[in-house]
């Protein structure tokens, strides 16, 4: 696009956060017309791979916004979120102009707002998890430990659109190697440290979307062994992110003297995941909750 005097051009490509922001900017930027400034916004719609150039000082943006809103309403949120795992890589730090989250209550409320739209801004979800700073007084009531294994404690069910959990890790406790059922997994440290080991997802490359979402029977899926691709320490207020296109992982508390607590967000939520042994034998594991909303669950309610 050419730049002339009195013309300010802004180009946004595939960033989901910027795409949402520009829709808001269209309305607020109308005051610029009084200064004889013309603002052109290039909109990229990943939903439809549609590209448009709009002059927000004219009447067309109203029509454009209406059409965009219509397209968003028609999106299947769960399908969209699963498709987003094919390209999303995670933010390394909070967005420069993103909203602040001061408390756990604020975080939950902000997450609910993000998931009200079928078109979930996954970068904003990532930003919110990064922005929240651990405060034990806020999450202590959800932190339930077990002597023998790490625990999964439900904080908020997200109206069925996401799950927010607190996981409590005793000294030396760790998970098995597992996937995330084609969902997004954000993991924020609240107390102590964790160590994440990542592995290649067996036979993942070259599989189409339908195959990724299908459930395979238990048994041997390959003659190879799990291939470790990285190991990362996670410190307090750090956020780790993984989805099945990035691999499998195992999480453990490396300390034999201190406990650890982490905050996890899964979207879409899932009831089962796949667990892998070193030999690549895959089994299906049911996802359960040790407690819900700070109250210990009964065996038949997990």
TrEMBL record:
Its cofactor is Fe cation. It catalyses: L-cysteine + O2 = 3-sulfino-L-alanine + H(+). The keyword Iron applies. The keyword Oxidoreductase applies. SUPFAM superfamilies: RmlC-like cupins (SSF51182). Pathway: Organosulfur biosynthesis; taurine biosynthesis; hypotaurine from L-cysteine: step 1/2. This is Cysteine dioxygenase.
């Amino acid at each position: 696009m050419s730049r002339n005097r009195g013309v300010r051009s802004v180009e946004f490509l595939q960033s989901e956060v910027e795409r949402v922001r520009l829709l808001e900017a269209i309305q607020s930027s109308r005051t610029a017309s009084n200064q004889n400034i013309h603002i052109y916004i290039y909109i990229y719609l990943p939903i439809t791979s549609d590209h448009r150039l709009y002059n927000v000082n004219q009447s067309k943006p109203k029509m454009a916004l209406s059409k965009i809103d219509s397209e968003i309403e028609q999106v299947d949120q769960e399908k969209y979120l699963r498709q987003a795992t094919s390209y999303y890589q995670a933010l390394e730090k909070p967005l420069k102009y993103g909203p602040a989250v001061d408390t756990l209550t604020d975080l939950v409320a902000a997450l609910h707002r993000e998931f009200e739209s079928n078109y979930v801004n996954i970068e904003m979800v990532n930003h919110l998890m990064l922005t929240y700073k651990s405060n034990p007084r806020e999450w202590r009531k959800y932190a339930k430990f077990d002597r023998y294994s790490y625990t999964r404690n439900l904080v908020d069910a997200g109206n069925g659109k996401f799950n927010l959990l607190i996981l409590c890790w005793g000294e030396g406790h760790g998970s098995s190697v597992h996937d995330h059922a084609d969902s997004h997994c954000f993991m924020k440290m609240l107390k102590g440290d964790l160590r994440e080991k990542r592995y290649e997802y067996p036979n993942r490359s070259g599989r189409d979307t339908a195959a990724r979402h299908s459930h395979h029977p238990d048994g041997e899926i390959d003659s190879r062994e799990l291939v470790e691709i990285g190991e990362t320490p996670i410190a307090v207020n750090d956020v780790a992110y993984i989805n099945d296109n990035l691999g499998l992982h195992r999480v453990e508390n490396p300390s034999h003297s201190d406990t650890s607590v982490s905050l996890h967000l899964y979207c879409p939520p899932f009831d089962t995941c796949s667990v892998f042994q070193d030999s690549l034998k895959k089994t299906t594991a049911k996802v359960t909750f040790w407690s819900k909303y700070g109250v210990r669950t009964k065996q038949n309610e997990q």
